Amino acid sequence: MVNGPPHFTESTVFPRESGKNCKVYTFSKDGTLFAWGNGEKINVTNVTNKGLLHSFDLPKVVCLEFSPKNTVLATWQPYTTSKDGTAGIPNLQLYDIKTGTCLKSFIQKKMQNWCPSWSEDETVCARNVNNEVHFFENNNLNTIANKLHLQKINDFVLSPGPQPYKVAVYVPGSKGAPSFVRLYQYPNFDGPHAALANKSFFKADKVTMLWNKKATAVLVIASTDVDKTGASYYGEQTLHYIATNGESAVVQLPKNGPIYDVVWNSSSTEFCAVYGFMPAKATIFNLKCDPVFDFGTGPRNAAYYSPHGHILVLAGFGNLRGQMEVWDVKNYKLISKPVASDSTYFAWCPDGEHILTATCAPRLRVNNGFKIWHYTGSVLHKYDVPSNAELWQVSWQPFLDGIFPTKTISYQAVPSDVPNEEPKAATAYRPPALRNKPNTNSKLHEEEPPQNMKPQPGNDKPLSKTALKNQRKHEAKKAAKQEARSDKSPPDLAPTPAAQSSAQNTISQSTSGNPEVDKKIKNLKKKLKAIEQLKEQATAGKQLEKNQLEKIQKEKALLQELEDLELGI
Q1: Residue 110 and residue 64 in one domain
Q2: What is the pTM of this model?
Protein backbone atom coordinates (compact mmCIF):
# COMPACT_ATOMS: atom_id res chain seq x y z
CA MET A 1 0.00 0.00 0.00
CA VAL A 2 1.45 3.34 -1.13
CA ASN A 3 0.68 6.86 0.12
CA GLY A 4 -1.01 9.02 -2.50
CA PRO A 5 0.17 12.35 -4.00
CA PRO A 6 2.46 14.10 -3.25
CA HIS A 7 4.62 11.57 -1.29
CA PHE A 8 4.24 8.10 -2.89
CA THR A 9 6.07 6.43 0.02
CA GLU A 10 5.14 2.97 1.26
CA SER A 11 2.29 3.18 3.76
CA THR A 12 2.82 2.08 7.35
CA VAL A 13 -0.90 1.22 7.68
CA PHE A 14 -0.48 -2.09 5.89
CA PRO A 15 2.64 -4.26 6.19
CA ARG A 16 3.72 -5.54 2.76
CA GLU A 17 2.45 -9.07 1.99
CA SER A 18 5.08 -10.80 -0.12
CA GLY A 19 3.49 -14.23 -0.65
CA LYS A 20 3.30 -15.62 -4.16
CA ASN A 21 -0.36 -16.58 -3.83
CA CYS A 22 -1.95 -13.16 -3.30
CA LYS A 23 -4.83 -13.22 -5.76
CA VAL A 24 -7.35 -10.64 -4.64
CA TYR A 25 -7.92 -7.52 -2.55
CA THR A 26 -10.66 -4.93 -2.09
CA PHE A 27 -11.41 -1.72 -0.20
CA SER A 28 -14.73 -0.91 1.45
CA LYS A 29 -16.85 1.81 -0.23
CA ASP A 30 -15.68 4.48 2.24
CA GLY A 31 -12.04 3.31 2.13
CA THR A 32 -11.77 2.54 5.87
CA LEU A 33 -11.57 -1.28 5.58
CA PHE A 34 -9.22 -3.37 3.44
CA ALA A 35 -9.50 -7.11 2.75
CA TRP A 36 -7.04 -9.35 0.91
CA GLY A 37 -6.40 -13.01 0.25
CA ASN A 38 -2.92 -14.57 0.42
CA GLY A 39 -3.77 -18.09 -0.75
CA GLU A 40 -4.39 -19.32 2.81
CA LYS A 41 -6.59 -16.78 4.58
CA ILE A 42 -8.79 -13.79 3.84
CA ASN A 43 -7.70 -10.96 6.17
CA VAL A 44 -9.68 -7.82 7.00
CA THR A 45 -7.88 -4.80 8.41
CA ASN A 46 -8.96 -1.31 9.47
CA VAL A 47 -6.99 1.26 7.45
CA THR A 48 -7.58 4.12 9.92
CA ASN A 49 -6.36 2.46 13.15
CA LYS A 50 -4.09 -0.23 11.61
CA GLY A 51 -5.91 -3.08 13.36
CA LEU A 52 -6.43 -6.59 11.95
CA LEU A 53 -10.16 -7.26 12.44
CA HIS A 54 -10.63 -10.82 11.14
CA SER A 55 -8.88 -13.68 9.46
CA PHE A 56 -11.04 -16.23 7.60
CA ASP A 57 -9.70 -19.62 6.57
CA LEU A 58 -10.63 -19.41 2.86
CA PRO A 59 -7.70 -20.46 0.62
CA LYS A 60 -9.65 -20.70 -2.67
CA VAL A 61 -11.48 -17.34 -2.64
CA VAL A 62 -10.99 -15.26 -5.82
CA CYS A 63 -13.62 -12.51 -5.33
CA LEU A 64 -14.24 -10.15 -2.40
CA GLU A 65 -16.76 -7.36 -1.83
CA PHE A 66 -17.87 -5.22 1.13
CA SER A 67 -21.48 -4.14 1.60
CA PRO A 68 -21.99 -0.32 1.33
CA LYS A 69 -22.03 0.31 5.13
CA ASN A 70 -19.29 -2.22 5.98
CA THR A 71 -21.67 -4.65 7.68
CA VAL A 72 -21.06 -7.69 5.47
CA LEU A 73 -18.06 -9.15 3.62
CA ALA A 74 -19.05 -11.27 0.61
CA THR A 75 -16.57 -13.92 -0.65
CA TRP A 76 -16.81 -16.17 -3.72
CA GLN A 77 -14.78 -19.20 -4.79
CA PRO A 78 -15.23 -21.39 -7.88
CA TYR A 79 -18.10 -23.89 -7.54
CA THR A 80 -17.05 -27.54 -7.54
CA THR A 81 -19.05 -30.78 -7.53
CA SER A 82 -17.78 -34.08 -6.18
CA LYS A 83 -16.82 -36.95 -8.51
CA ASP A 84 -19.85 -39.05 -7.58
CA GLY A 85 -22.16 -36.33 -8.94
CA THR A 86 -23.56 -35.07 -5.63
CA ALA A 87 -24.15 -31.32 -5.34
CA GLY A 88 -21.20 -29.20 -4.28
CA ILE A 89 -21.02 -27.14 -1.11
CA PRO A 90 -22.17 -23.48 -1.11
CA ASN A 91 -19.39 -21.31 -2.53
CA LEU A 92 -20.75 -17.77 -1.83
CA GLN A 93 -20.27 -16.79 1.82
CA LEU A 94 -21.54 -13.67 3.59
CA TYR A 95 -19.71 -12.79 6.83
CA ASP A 96 -20.73 -10.37 9.58
CA ILE A 97 -17.75 -7.99 9.88
CA LYS A 98 -18.52 -7.11 13.53
CA THR A 99 -18.59 -10.67 14.85
CA GLY A 100 -16.78 -12.58 12.09
CA THR A 101 -19.59 -15.18 11.90
CA CYS A 102 -20.95 -16.52 8.62
CA LEU A 103 -24.45 -15.06 8.17
CA LYS A 104 -25.43 -17.14 5.15
CA SER A 105 -24.00 -19.38 2.38
CA PHE A 106 -25.41 -19.72 -1.12
CA ILE A 107 -24.61 -21.81 -4.17
CA GLN A 108 -23.55 -19.36 -6.90
CA LYS A 109 -22.25 -21.24 -9.93
CA LYS A 110 -21.40 -18.34 -12.23
CA MET A 111 -18.66 -15.82 -11.50
CA GLN A 112 -20.53 -13.18 -13.50
CA ASN A 113 -22.75 -11.06 -11.19
CA TRP A 114 -21.68 -13.28 -8.27
CA CYS A 115 -22.09 -10.56 -5.62
CA PRO A 116 -25.47 -9.67 -4.10
CA SER A 117 -26.56 -6.05 -4.71
CA TRP A 118 -27.26 -3.80 -1.73
CA SER A 119 -29.09 -0.50 -1.57
CA GLU A 120 -26.86 2.29 -0.22
CA ASP A 121 -28.37 2.10 3.29
CA GLU A 122 -28.36 -1.75 3.23
CA THR A 123 -32.12 -1.91 3.81
CA VAL A 124 -32.48 -4.05 0.69
CA CYS A 125 -30.21 -6.80 -0.65
CA ALA A 126 -30.96 -8.59 -3.93
CA ARG A 127 -29.78 -11.71 -5.82
CA ASN A 128 -30.71 -13.22 -9.18
CA VAL A 129 -31.69 -16.86 -8.58
CA ASN A 130 -33.06 -19.11 -11.35
CA ASN A 131 -34.53 -16.24 -13.39
CA GLU A 132 -36.06 -14.57 -10.32
CA VAL A 133 -34.77 -11.67 -8.24
CA HIS A 134 -34.88 -12.42 -4.49
CA PHE A 135 -34.95 -9.46 -2.10
CA PHE A 136 -33.83 -9.58 1.54
CA GLU A 137 -34.38 -6.77 4.06
CA ASN A 138 -32.04 -5.39 6.77
CA ASN A 139 -29.44 -8.11 6.06
CA ASN A 140 -31.81 -10.83 7.27
CA LEU A 141 -30.51 -13.29 4.66
CA ASN A 142 -32.53 -16.29 5.87
CA THR A 143 -35.90 -14.81 4.89
CA ILE A 144 -36.81 -13.76 1.34
CA ALA A 145 -38.85 -10.56 1.83
CA ASN A 146 -39.91 -10.15 -1.82
CA LYS A 147 -39.59 -11.84 -5.20
CA LEU A 148 -39.65 -10.34 -8.68
CA HIS A 149 -40.70 -13.08 -11.07
CA LEU A 150 -40.82 -12.63 -14.86
CA GLN A 151 -40.48 -15.38 -17.45
CA LYS A 152 -36.65 -15.31 -17.63
CA ILE A 153 -34.84 -12.48 -15.87
CA ASN A 154 -31.31 -12.48 -17.20
CA ASP A 155 -29.95 -9.45 -15.32
CA PHE A 156 -31.01 -6.72 -12.91
CA VAL A 157 -29.51 -3.51 -11.48
CA LEU A 158 -30.58 -1.80 -8.23
CA SER A 159 -30.72 1.99 -8.35
CA PRO A 160 -28.19 4.06 -6.39
CA GLY A 161 -29.14 6.67 -3.81
CA PRO A 162 -31.78 6.82 -1.05
CA GLN A 163 -35.34 5.42 -0.91
CA PRO A 164 -37.56 4.77 -2.83
CA TYR A 165 -35.38 2.04 -4.39
CA LYS A 166 -35.87 1.16 -8.02
CA VAL A 167 -34.75 -1.89 -9.95
CA ALA A 168 -34.09 -2.31 -13.68
CA VAL A 169 -34.58 -5.85 -15.05
CA TYR A 170 -33.67 -7.31 -18.43
CA VAL A 171 -35.57 -10.21 -20.04
CA PRO A 172 -34.09 -11.55 -23.31
CA GLY A 173 -36.43 -12.16 -26.22
CA SER A 174 -37.34 -15.67 -27.41
CA LYS A 175 -39.28 -17.23 -30.29
CA GLY A 176 -39.68 -13.96 -32.20
CA ALA A 177 -40.70 -11.94 -29.13
CA PRO A 178 -38.60 -8.83 -28.39
CA SER A 179 -36.23 -8.41 -25.43
CA PHE A 180 -37.28 -5.82 -22.86
CA VAL A 181 -36.00 -3.78 -19.93
CA ARG A 182 -38.48 -2.79 -17.21
CA LEU A 183 -38.12 -0.38 -14.30
CA TYR A 184 -39.91 -1.13 -11.02
CA GLN A 185 -40.14 0.65 -7.69
CA TYR A 186 -39.46 -1.66 -4.75
CA PRO A 187 -41.60 -3.51 -3.58
CA ASN A 188 -44.38 -2.86 -6.18
CA PHE A 189 -43.86 -5.78 -8.57
CA ASP A 190 -47.37 -7.19 -9.01
CA GLY A 191 -50.00 -6.40 -11.61
CA PRO A 192 -49.72 -5.44 -15.29
CA HIS A 193 -49.23 -1.74 -14.50
CA ALA A 194 -46.68 -2.13 -11.72
CA ALA A 195 -43.72 -1.21 -13.97
CA LEU A 196 -42.64 2.45 -13.96
CA ALA A 197 -41.36 2.12 -17.52
CA ASN A 198 -40.88 -0.50 -20.21
CA LYS A 199 -38.70 -0.54 -23.33
CA SER A 200 -38.73 -3.46 -25.73
CA PHE A 201 -36.28 -3.99 -28.58
CA PHE A 202 -35.07 -6.62 -31.01
CA LYS A 203 -31.36 -7.13 -31.73
CA ALA A 204 -30.15 -7.91 -28.22
CA ASP A 205 -28.09 -10.87 -27.07
CA LYS A 206 -26.86 -9.02 -23.99
CA VAL A 207 -27.47 -5.63 -22.39
CA THR A 208 -25.64 -3.24 -20.08
CA MET A 209 -27.87 -1.12 -17.83
CA LEU A 210 -26.53 2.13 -16.37
CA TRP A 211 -28.48 4.10 -13.73
CA ASN A 212 -27.72 7.78 -13.28
CA LYS A 213 -26.74 8.95 -9.80
CA LYS A 214 -30.17 10.46 -9.01
CA ALA A 215 -31.91 7.23 -10.12
CA THR A 216 -34.20 9.07 -12.55
CA ALA A 217 -33.12 7.27 -15.75
CA VAL A 218 -31.34 4.20 -17.14
CA LEU A 219 -29.22 3.93 -20.27
CA VAL A 220 -29.34 0.52 -21.94
CA ILE A 221 -26.64 -0.62 -24.37
CA ALA A 222 -28.16 -3.54 -26.27
CA SER A 223 -25.72 -5.61 -28.30
CA THR A 224 -25.82 -8.63 -30.57
CA ASP A 225 -22.93 -11.08 -30.88
CA VAL A 226 -23.10 -11.07 -34.68
CA ASP A 227 -23.75 -8.17 -37.03
CA LYS A 228 -25.87 -9.75 -39.77
CA THR A 229 -24.98 -6.96 -42.23
CA GLY A 230 -21.31 -7.94 -41.88
CA ALA A 231 -20.34 -4.31 -41.18
CA SER A 232 -18.74 -5.03 -37.80
CA TYR A 233 -16.76 -7.90 -36.33
CA TYR A 234 -17.98 -6.91 -32.84
CA GLY A 235 -21.70 -7.38 -33.46
CA GLU A 236 -24.20 -4.56 -33.44
CA GLN A 237 -25.08 -2.12 -30.64
CA THR A 238 -27.96 0.25 -29.97
CA LEU A 239 -28.39 2.77 -27.16
CA HIS A 240 -31.75 3.23 -25.40
CA TYR A 241 -32.85 5.75 -22.79
CA ILE A 242 -35.53 4.87 -20.20
CA ALA A 243 -36.73 7.31 -17.52
CA THR A 244 -38.64 6.39 -14.35
CA ASN A 245 -41.47 8.76 -15.42
CA GLY A 246 -42.24 6.33 -18.28
CA GLU A 247 -40.44 8.16 -21.09
CA SER A 248 -38.19 6.12 -23.36
CA ALA A 249 -36.25 6.75 -26.58
CA VAL A 250 -33.61 5.33 -28.88
CA VAL A 251 -30.56 7.59 -28.75
CA GLN A 252 -29.83 8.58 -32.35
CA LEU A 253 -26.07 8.35 -32.91
CA PRO A 254 -24.89 10.33 -35.96
CA LYS A 255 -22.18 7.82 -36.96
CA ASN A 256 -22.57 4.11 -37.73
CA GLY A 257 -20.48 1.50 -35.96
CA PRO A 258 -19.89 -0.01 -32.52
CA ILE A 259 -20.76 1.75 -29.26
CA TYR A 260 -17.52 1.59 -27.26
CA ASP A 261 -18.50 3.36 -24.05
CA VAL A 262 -21.36 5.29 -22.43
CA VAL A 263 -21.01 7.19 -19.13
CA TRP A 264 -23.31 9.36 -17.02
CA ASN A 265 -22.09 12.65 -15.59
CA SER A 266 -22.44 12.74 -11.77
CA SER A 267 -24.89 15.65 -12.27
CA SER A 268 -27.33 13.05 -13.80
CA THR A 269 -28.37 15.62 -16.44
CA GLU A 270 -26.12 14.50 -19.31
CA PHE A 271 -24.20 11.51 -20.61
CA CYS A 272 -21.32 10.94 -23.01
CA ALA A 273 -21.21 8.24 -25.71
CA VAL A 274 -18.15 7.08 -27.69
CA TYR A 275 -19.26 5.36 -30.90
CA GLY A 276 -18.77 4.78 -34.63
CA PHE A 277 -16.17 3.13 -36.83
CA MET A 278 -12.65 4.46 -36.21
CA PRO A 279 -11.86 7.31 -35.89
CA ALA A 280 -14.68 7.24 -33.32
CA LYS A 281 -17.00 10.11 -32.44
CA ALA A 282 -17.74 11.25 -28.89
CA THR A 283 -20.86 13.27 -28.09
CA ILE A 284 -22.50 14.63 -24.94
CA PHE A 285 -26.31 14.27 -24.86
CA ASN A 286 -28.91 15.81 -22.54
CA LEU A 287 -31.93 14.04 -20.99
CA LYS A 288 -33.96 14.69 -24.16
CA CYS A 289 -31.29 12.64 -25.99
CA ASP A 290 -30.35 15.72 -28.02
CA PRO A 291 -26.63 16.26 -28.73
CA VAL A 292 -25.18 19.12 -26.64
CA PHE A 293 -21.52 18.99 -27.64
CA ASP A 294 -19.71 16.91 -30.26
CA PHE A 295 -16.00 16.24 -29.67
CA GLY A 296 -15.46 15.38 -33.34
CA THR A 297 -13.59 12.22 -34.35
CA GLY A 298 -10.41 10.72 -32.92
CA PRO A 299 -8.63 7.51 -31.84
CA ARG A 300 -10.72 6.73 -28.74
CA ASN A 301 -12.84 3.97 -27.25
CA ALA A 302 -13.47 5.04 -23.63
CA ALA A 303 -14.79 8.00 -21.62
CA TYR A 304 -14.31 8.80 -17.92
CA TYR A 305 -15.97 11.67 -16.01
CA SER A 306 -14.16 12.96 -12.94
CA PRO A 307 -15.94 12.27 -9.61
CA HIS A 308 -17.18 15.89 -9.51
CA GLY A 309 -18.31 15.73 -13.14
CA HIS A 310 -16.39 18.84 -14.24
CA ILE A 311 -13.66 17.08 -16.30
CA LEU A 312 -14.06 14.41 -18.98
CA VAL A 313 -11.25 12.19 -20.27
CA LEU A 314 -11.67 10.60 -23.70
CA ALA A 315 -9.11 7.83 -24.22
CA GLY A 316 -8.01 5.20 -26.71
CA PHE A 317 -6.82 2.10 -24.81
CA GLY A 318 -6.62 -1.60 -25.70
CA ASN A 319 -5.71 -1.84 -29.38
CA LEU A 320 -5.24 1.96 -29.61
CA ARG A 321 -2.11 3.92 -28.71
CA GLY A 322 -3.26 5.32 -25.36
CA GLN A 323 -3.94 8.92 -26.38
CA MET A 324 -6.03 10.81 -23.83
CA GLU A 325 -7.96 14.07 -24.27
CA VAL A 326 -8.75 15.91 -21.02
CA TRP A 327 -11.71 18.30 -21.43
CA ASP A 328 -13.17 21.03 -19.24
CA VAL A 329 -16.85 20.05 -19.58
CA LYS A 330 -18.32 23.38 -18.44
CA ASN A 331 -16.49 25.49 -21.04
CA TYR A 332 -15.82 22.68 -23.56
CA LYS A 333 -12.12 23.50 -23.65
CA LEU A 334 -9.29 21.01 -24.13
CA ILE A 335 -6.98 20.99 -21.05
CA SER A 336 -4.27 18.48 -22.07
CA LYS A 337 -3.49 15.57 -24.39
CA PRO A 338 -1.26 13.10 -22.50
CA VAL A 339 -0.36 9.65 -23.88
CA ALA A 340 -0.46 6.54 -21.65
CA SER A 341 0.60 3.79 -24.04
CA ASP A 342 -0.19 0.11 -23.34
CA SER A 343 -2.66 1.03 -20.57
CA THR A 344 -5.15 -1.64 -19.54
CA TYR A 345 -6.63 0.24 -16.56
CA PHE A 346 -7.71 3.84 -15.88
CA ALA A 347 -9.17 5.37 -12.70
CA TRP A 348 -9.87 8.85 -11.35
CA CYS A 349 -8.67 9.62 -7.85
CA PRO A 350 -11.61 10.56 -5.55
CA ASP A 351 -10.04 14.09 -5.26
CA GLY A 352 -10.97 14.77 -8.93
CA GLU A 353 -7.41 15.93 -9.70
CA HIS A 354 -5.26 12.83 -10.14
CA ILE A 355 -5.47 9.93 -12.57
CA LEU A 356 -4.10 6.38 -12.34
CA THR A 357 -3.19 4.44 -15.49
CA ALA A 358 -1.73 0.92 -15.36
CA THR A 359 -0.55 -1.94 -17.53
CA CYS A 360 -1.69 -5.17 -15.87
CA ALA A 361 -1.44 -8.93 -16.45
CA PRO A 362 -3.00 -11.08 -17.82
CA ARG A 363 -4.09 -8.51 -20.47
CA LEU A 364 -0.43 -7.61 -21.07
CA ARG A 365 2.42 -9.57 -19.51
CA VAL A 366 5.27 -7.19 -20.41
CA ASN A 367 6.06 -3.62 -19.31
CA ASN A 368 3.73 -3.94 -16.31
CA GLY A 369 3.52 -0.93 -14.00
CA PHE A 370 1.46 2.14 -13.14
CA LYS A 371 1.61 5.92 -13.45
CA ILE A 372 -0.04 8.69 -11.42
CA TRP A 373 -0.91 11.77 -13.51
CA HIS A 374 -2.25 15.23 -12.83
CA TYR A 375 -5.11 15.97 -15.23
CA THR A 376 -3.03 18.79 -16.77
CA GLY A 377 -0.82 16.09 -18.33
CA SER A 378 2.11 15.81 -15.88
CA VAL A 379 3.30 12.39 -14.66
CA LEU A 380 3.78 12.72 -10.87
CA HIS A 381 4.82 9.15 -10.07
CA LYS A 382 5.85 6.10 -12.07
CA TYR A 383 6.38 2.51 -10.93
CA ASP A 384 7.68 -0.25 -13.21
CA VAL A 385 7.35 -3.85 -12.08
CA PRO A 386 10.62 -5.88 -12.29
CA SER A 387 10.88 -7.83 -15.57
CA ASN A 388 10.37 -11.22 -13.86
CA ALA A 389 7.17 -10.07 -12.06
CA GLU A 390 3.62 -9.09 -13.11
CA LEU A 391 1.17 -6.46 -11.91
CA TRP A 392 -2.31 -7.92 -11.42
CA GLN A 393 -4.39 -5.26 -9.72
CA VAL A 394 -4.02 -1.60 -8.72
CA SER A 395 -6.60 0.89 -7.44
CA TRP A 396 -7.17 4.07 -5.42
CA GLN A 397 -8.42 3.99 -1.86
CA PRO A 398 -12.09 5.07 -2.18
CA PHE A 399 -13.65 7.99 -0.29
CA LEU A 400 -17.28 8.97 0.15
CA ASP A 401 -18.69 11.80 -1.98
CA GLY A 402 -18.32 15.31 -0.61
CA ILE A 403 -15.02 14.74 1.25
CA PHE A 404 -12.96 16.44 -1.48
CA PRO A 405 -14.21 19.88 -2.59
CA THR A 406 -14.39 20.79 -6.30
CA LYS A 407 -11.40 22.94 -7.27
CA THR A 408 -11.19 25.41 -10.12
CA ILE A 409 -9.74 23.93 -13.29
CA SER A 410 -6.13 24.73 -14.12
CA TYR A 411 -4.87 24.74 -17.71
CA GLN A 412 -1.20 25.10 -16.72
CA ALA A 413 0.72 21.81 -16.45
CA VAL A 414 1.67 21.02 -12.84
CA PRO A 415 5.46 20.85 -12.28
CA SER A 416 6.85 17.30 -11.92
CA ASP A 417 10.22 15.65 -11.24
CA VAL A 418 9.29 12.56 -13.27
CA PRO A 419 10.48 12.81 -16.87
CA ASN A 420 7.60 11.98 -19.19
CA GLU A 421 8.96 9.79 -21.98
CA GLU A 422 6.51 10.64 -24.71
CA PRO A 423 6.48 7.79 -27.22
CA LYS A 424 7.97 8.94 -30.53
CA ALA A 425 5.30 9.48 -33.12
CA ALA A 426 5.69 6.71 -35.67
CA THR A 427 6.18 8.14 -39.14
CA ALA A 428 4.46 6.53 -42.07
CA TYR A 429 6.53 4.24 -44.29
CA ARG A 430 7.75 5.94 -47.49
CA PRO A 431 9.10 3.85 -50.38
CA PRO A 432 12.67 4.75 -51.43
CA ALA A 433 11.50 6.44 -54.64
CA LEU A 434 9.47 9.01 -52.65
CA ARG A 435 11.89 9.69 -49.77
CA ASN A 436 13.48 12.85 -51.20
CA LYS A 437 10.23 14.25 -52.54
CA PRO A 438 7.91 16.64 -50.66
CA ASN A 439 5.21 15.13 -48.45
CA THR A 440 1.76 14.85 -49.96
CA ASN A 441 -0.64 15.08 -47.08
CA SER A 442 -3.18 12.36 -47.82
CA LYS A 443 -5.51 11.26 -45.02
CA LEU A 444 -7.37 7.99 -44.76
CA HIS A 445 -10.37 9.69 -43.14
CA GLU A 446 -11.55 13.25 -42.79
CA GLU A 447 -11.17 14.24 -39.13
CA GLU A 448 -14.17 16.11 -37.77
CA PRO A 449 -13.44 19.04 -35.42
CA PRO A 450 -15.31 19.47 -32.10
CA GLN A 451 -18.49 21.56 -32.34
CA ASN A 452 -21.06 22.93 -29.92
CA MET A 453 -24.47 21.46 -30.68
CA LYS A 454 -26.37 23.71 -28.24
CA PRO A 455 -28.70 26.16 -30.03
CA GLN A 456 -26.89 29.51 -29.80
CA PRO A 457 -28.96 32.55 -28.70
CA GLY A 458 -30.46 34.09 -31.81
CA ASN A 459 -29.99 30.90 -33.84
CA ASP A 460 -32.82 28.54 -34.60
CA LYS A 461 -32.74 25.22 -32.81
CA PRO A 462 -31.49 22.45 -35.15
CA LEU A 463 -34.60 20.63 -36.35
CA SER A 464 -35.11 16.91 -36.10
CA LYS A 465 -35.70 14.83 -39.27
CA THR A 466 -39.47 14.74 -38.69
CA ALA A 467 -39.65 18.49 -38.03
CA LEU A 468 -37.72 19.19 -41.25
CA LYS A 469 -40.05 16.90 -43.21
CA ASN A 470 -43.13 18.66 -41.79
CA GLN A 471 -41.58 22.07 -42.51
CA ARG A 472 -40.99 21.11 -46.16
CA LYS A 473 -44.58 19.80 -46.51
CA HIS A 474 -45.89 23.03 -45.01
CA GLU A 475 -43.82 25.14 -47.41
CA ALA A 476 -44.94 23.08 -50.42
CA LYS A 477 -48.62 23.50 -49.41
CA LYS A 478 -48.11 27.24 -49.02
CA ALA A 479 -46.53 27.53 -52.47
CA ALA A 480 -49.37 25.48 -54.03
CA LYS A 481 -51.99 27.73 -52.40
CA GLN A 482 -50.26 30.88 -53.71
CA GLU A 483 -50.09 29.38 -57.20
CA ALA A 484 -53.77 28.47 -57.06
CA ARG A 485 -54.59 32.02 -55.93
CA SER A 486 -52.61 33.58 -58.75
CA ASP A 487 -54.32 31.23 -61.24
CA LYS A 488 -57.70 32.60 -60.12
CA SER A 489 -56.63 36.28 -60.22
CA PRO A 490 -58.99 38.56 -62.28
CA PRO A 491 -58.12 38.97 -66.01
CA ASP A 492 -58.22 42.81 -66.05
CA LEU A 493 -55.14 43.05 -63.78
CA ALA A 494 -52.05 43.93 -65.83
CA PRO A 495 -48.70 42.61 -64.63
CA THR A 496 -46.59 45.07 -62.62
CA PRO A 497 -43.30 46.37 -64.04
CA ALA A 498 -41.40 44.41 -61.36
CA ALA A 499 -43.06 41.18 -62.43
CA GLN A 500 -42.22 41.94 -66.09
CA SER A 501 -38.55 42.62 -65.32
CA SER A 502 -38.14 39.30 -63.49
CA ALA A 503 -40.11 37.34 -66.05
CA GLN A 504 -37.13 35.20 -66.96
CA ASN A 505 -36.29 34.15 -63.40
CA THR A 506 -39.63 33.75 -61.66
CA ILE A 507 -42.70 31.86 -62.66
CA SER A 508 -45.01 34.83 -62.16
CA GLN A 509 -48.44 34.45 -63.70
CA SER A 510 -49.26 36.68 -66.70
CA THR A 511 -52.92 36.93 -67.63
CA SER A 512 -54.16 37.30 -71.18
CA GLY A 513 -57.78 36.41 -70.79
CA ASN A 514 -57.02 33.31 -72.86
CA PRO A 515 -56.28 30.38 -70.51
CA GLU A 516 -54.51 28.40 -73.29
CA VAL A 517 -52.01 31.23 -73.91
CA ASP A 518 -51.47 31.68 -70.16
CA LYS A 519 -50.67 28.00 -69.81
CA LYS A 520 -48.12 28.17 -72.64
CA ILE A 521 -46.42 31.24 -71.07
CA LYS A 522 -46.21 29.49 -67.70
CA ASN A 523 -44.64 26.39 -69.28
CA LEU A 524 -42.09 28.45 -71.21
CA LYS A 525 -41.04 30.28 -68.04
CA LYS A 526 -40.60 26.96 -66.24
CA LYS A 527 -38.32 25.71 -69.02
CA LEU A 528 -36.30 28.95 -68.98
CA LYS A 529 -35.84 28.70 -65.22
CA ALA A 530 -34.56 25.13 -65.59
CA ILE A 531 -32.10 26.32 -68.30
CA GLU A 532 -30.90 29.09 -65.96
CA GLN A 533 -30.16 26.50 -63.24
CA LEU A 534 -28.28 24.26 -65.72
CA LYS A 535 -26.13 27.21 -66.80
CA GLU A 536 -25.28 27.92 -63.13
CA GLN A 537 -24.24 24.27 -62.66
CA ALA A 538 -22.07 24.44 -65.78
CA THR A 539 -20.27 27.57 -64.52
CA ALA A 540 -19.71 25.82 -61.18
CA GLY A 541 -17.77 23.16 -63.12
CA LYS A 542 -20.35 20.36 -63.18
CA GLN A 543 -20.21 17.99 -66.17
CA LEU A 544 -23.58 18.23 -67.97
CA GLU A 545 -25.35 15.41 -69.84
CA LYS A 546 -25.98 15.55 -73.61
CA ASN A 547 -29.72 16.20 -73.22
CA GLN A 548 -28.98 19.02 -70.72
CA LEU A 549 -26.64 20.72 -73.22
CA GLU A 550 -29.36 20.44 -75.88
CA LYS A 551 -31.81 22.15 -73.50
CA ILE A 552 -29.40 25.13 -73.10
CA GLN A 553 -29.11 25.46 -76.90
CA LYS A 554 -32.91 25.87 -77.13
CA GLU A 555 -32.87 28.94 -74.83
CA LYS A 556 -32.85 31.51 -77.69
CA ALA A 557 -35.84 29.93 -79.45
CA LEU A 558 -37.80 29.71 -76.18
CA LEU A 559 -37.12 33.38 -75.35
CA GLN A 560 -38.34 34.39 -78.83
CA GLU A 561 -41.50 32.28 -78.42
CA LEU A 562 -42.18 33.83 -75.00
CA GLU A 563 -41.71 37.35 -76.37
CA ASP A 564 -44.15 36.67 -79.24
CA LEU A 565 -46.78 35.32 -76.88
CA GLU A 566 -46.44 38.22 -74.44
CA LEU A 567 -46.60 40.79 -77.27
CA GLY A 568 -49.69 39.11 -78.56
CA ILE A 569 -51.42 39.56 -75.17
Answers
A1: yes
A2: 0.73
Residue 280: closest CA among 311, 226, 237, 248: 237
Greater pLDDT, 502 or 428: 428
The answer to whether residues 201 and 127 belong to one domain is yes
> In terms of pLDDT, which residue wins out, 111 or 443?
111
Spatial distance between the Cα atoms of 212 and 243, rounded to a whole number of angstroms: 10
Phi, psi (degrees; rounded to nearest 5) at 134? -100, 130
| Buried-exposed string 244-258: b where 16+ CB fall within 10 A, e elsewhere | beeebeebebeeebb
Report which DSSP code applies to 368: -
| Counts of helices then strands in the chain (DSSP H, E) | 5, 33
110/164 same-domain check: no
Of 48, 82, 115, the one marking the end of a domain is 115
Q: Which helix (H) or strand (E) holds 546?
A: helix 546-553
Q: What is the pLDDT of residues 440-488, one digit of tens each?
A: 666 666 677 777 766 654 444 555 556 666 776 777 777 777 766 665 5
Tell which of 217, 245, 273 closes a domain. 245
Q: Is residue 237 part of a domain?
A: yes
What is the tens place of the pLDDT at every residue in 197-250?
888 888 778 889 999 999 899 999 988 877 777 777 777 888 999 999 888 889
- Show the domain range for 564: 537-568
Domain count of the fold of the chain:
3
Q: Are residues 75 and 158 in the same domain?
A: no
Chain centre to alpha carbon of residue 27? 27
Query: Is residue 458 helix, strand or coil?
Result: coil
Q: Is residue 278 part of a domain?
A: no
d(C-alpha 533, C-alpha 505), whole Å: 10
Burial class (CB in 10 A: 0-12, 13-18, 19+), 322: buried
